[in-house]
Each structure stands twice: as structure tokens, then as C-alpha cells.
From TrEMBL:
This is Ketoacyl reductase. Pfam families: adh_short. Keywords: Membrane, Oxidoreductase, Transmembrane, Transmembrane helix. SMART domains: PKS_KR (SM00822). Gene3D superfamilies: NAD(P)-binding Rossmann-like Domain.
Length: 353
């Protein structure tokens, strides 16, 4: 190796070392911030906590010593979730509540305060998924999505804010979606309302920081939560359910609910501004930011392969009522397993055994 080679390689070696040190310092900083916050004896309220991602987050929080409040509309689902959590040794309060109703939200917050005191962490997780072409979507679909993904988090946030401000601390977590960053065909009410939630969440973080309140926005990509069973499908509902449930189950394209919940909890402890979950979702968000026009063109091509309007039209059917020869199948095995584990459906015969 001659002198010129040494001179040429030294800057490259130094650059590699500098990059390595930078990422190491970042990792240490993230770890340190995570260690500064504990959920032990904290009261955490999770909307939509009776099944899916909300239930998985509740399970992991119980392991960390939190007092967990779960709320959802279905009282039977809530009781099954409560028993699941209590069997894991948790201190749990399950309150039936329609979070799109401001009065019910205020009543729920009062019940929580009477039992556990003030809420330390609010996780706005409740959601609704409507799948189908825009030709079959109605104004009611958009109104339901906006009520669930925008107004409901606003109601719960306004209900806990006065006490958080008074204490000078609190954490609010808004579970949005990759659909709140990149609008996906056949999910227009969902995407539009999740975009609204991202805007709300980002603005709240900026305004509430001075009050000691930390707001975190979470944008998961595809997750194996079993949510396809309870999503609503319109038009050619069986075909819509097939592509949606398969996409939601594939191991590389989607991430497990447990992994997502673990990353969400770590992000809350660190007080991160925003976290996009899964590598495919991160790539998608960055690509869209750099090439918005090209992203739109790609999605328009994807849309050509999705089911046409027709079928049941603007009526809707849940995923569990829209099965086909392809779903459930070997392609949806992981998603089907997640649905069983995460209270997405309940067979009467299981109750009798």
C-alpha cells in the first residue's frame, strides 16, 4: 500500500468512525431517556383497550406496574379483556364508553378519578376501519371515521388536560397510522381522519410542552392485531377482505402487535415526538416525502388491481362475515392467530368448555 492509498483511506475511515460514534451516542441517549420514566403506580387510560393493539399495550403496561383503565363500547368484550388482564396480576378498571360521545367521555374520566385518581398517561387508540372503493363510501362513513379518530381523541384530551396542567405533567399518546402519512386506496375515510389526528397531535405537542405535558404521535404500518375481523368492508366485500387480511398477515410486510406495543411503550417513556412503526412504513413515509407525485402515481397503479365497486354496494359487512376461499387460509395464519389471542372474536363453544 503506497502513501497515496493511506491518505485516501484515512478520511473514509474517519467518516465511518464518526458515523458509528454518532449512532452510538444516539442509542445511549435513547436508552437513558427511557430509564428516566417508570409506569409503576401510574394510571394509564387506553381507549379501544378491549381488543387488538390496545389490549396488547395494556398487557405490557401491567408487567411494568401500571394501573390500567380500558374503555370500549362493547361491554362483553371489555369484561373478557378485564379478566385477561387481571389473570396477569394487573390492577384493571374496565369502563364501557363510546368515546365519540363527549358526555360519556366526561363520565368515564370521573369514574377513573374516583377509583385511581388522576390519569397520568392517556393513550388514544380507539379506531374504526372501513375498506372499499370511494364509489361505495358514504358521508356517514367519513363522519364516523372523523368522530372516532379526531373528535374522540379531542374529547378525551380536553377531559384530562386541566388536571395535567395543574400538576405540570402528563403524557398523551395518539395512535394514528401510516394511513395518516400516506393516503391508501380503498381506505379513504380512515386515511383522511388519521391525517387529521396527526395534525392535531403535532400541534398539541408544540402547545402543551410549556405545561409539562408530552404528546407523542404513533404511526404504525401494517400490524398483526387481528383487526381485519372487525373492520367493515363495502362493495365486493369478500374480495376486499381477502386483500386486506392477507396484507395484514404477511410476516415481512406486517409486524406483530407485541413488537408494536413494545416500541410504543418505549416511545412513551422517552417522550418521542413521533414514531413510525415497521421498516416498510418508514420507507413508505420517507419515499412519499421525497416523491409525493410519484407515490400518488404508484398508488393509482395499485388501485387498478383492487376490487371494483359492486357486490353489496354501500352496505357494509364485518371481516368475520366476509370470508372467502383465500381468507382464512395459509396466507392469513399469523393474522388469524393474532385475532384469537387479542379478543377480536369469541366463539360461544369456547365459553362452555
Amino acid at each position: 500500500m503506497n502513501i497515496m492509498d493511506i491518505k485516501y483511506q484515512n478520511p473514509i475511515v474517519l467518516a465511518v468512525i464518526a458515523i458509528g460514534v454518532f449512532f452510538l451516542i444516539q442509542a445511549i441517549g435513547r436508552w437513558w431517556r427511557e430509564q428516566q420514566y417508570s409506569f409503576k403506580a401510574k394510571t394509564v387510560m387506553i381507549t379501544g383497550g378491549s381488543r387488538g393493539l390496545g389490549l396488547v399495550i395494556a398487557r405490557q403496561l401491567i408487567k411494568q406496574g401500571a394501573r390500567v383503565v380500558i374503555c370500549a363500547r362493547n361491554a362483553e368484550e371489555l369484561q373478557r379483556a378485564r379478566m385477561d388482564l387481571e389473570q396477569r396480576g394487573g390492577e384493571v378498571l374496565a369502563v364501557p364508553c363510546d368515546v365519540t360521545d363527549e358526555f360519556e367521555v366526561k363520565q368515564t374520566i370521573r369514574i377513573v378519578r374516583d377509583r385511581f385518581g388522576e390519569i397520568d398517561v392517556l393513550i388514544n387508540n380507539a379506531g374504526i376501519i372501513q375498506v372499499g372503493p370511494i364509489a361505495e363510501m358514504t358521508l356517514d362513513d367519513f363522519e364516523q371515521a372523523i368522530k372516532t379518530h379526531f373528535w374522540a381523541p379531542l374529547y378525551t384530551t380536553f377531559a384530562v388536560l386541566p388536571q395535567m396542567r395543574q400538576r405540570g405533567e402528563g403524557r398523551i399518546v395518539n395512535i394514528s397510522s401510516i394511513g395518516g402519512k400516506v393516503s391508501v386506496p380503498h381506505l379513504l375515510p380512515y386515511s383522511a381522519s388519521k391525517f387529521a389526528l396527526v395534525g392535531l397531535s403535532e400541534g398539541m405537542r408544540a402547545e402543551l410542552a410549556k405545561d409539562g405535558i408530552v404528546v407523542t404521535t404513533i404511526c404504525p404500518g401494517l400490524m398483526r392485531t387481528g383487526s381485519a375481523y372487525n373492520a367493515y368492508f363495502k362493495g365486493n366485500n369478500r374480495q376486499e377482505y381477502t386483500w386486506f387480511s392477507i396484507s395484514d398477515s404477511l410476516p415481512i410486510l406486517s409486524m406483530s402487535a407485541e413488537s408494536a406495543a413494545n416500541q410504543i411503550i418505549s416511545a412513551i417513556k422517552r417522550g418521542d415526538a413521533e414514531v413510525v412503526l415497521s421498516i416498510p412504513a418508514q420507507i413508505g413515509v420517507k419515499f412519499h416525502a421525497l416523491f409525493p407525485g410519484f407515490t400518488s402515481t404508484i398508488l393509482s397503479w395499485v388501485n387498478r388491481f383492487l376490487p371494483e365497486a359492486g357486490g353489496i354496494g354501500s352496505d357494509r359487512a364485518q371481516g368475520k362475515d366476509s370470508t372467502s376461499s383465500f381468507s382464512p387460509s395459509a396466507l392469513t395464519t399469523l393474522g388469524d392467530k393474532a385475532a384469537q389471542q387479542n379478543n377480536q372474536f369469541f366463539e360461544e363453544k369456547s365459553e362452555m368448555t
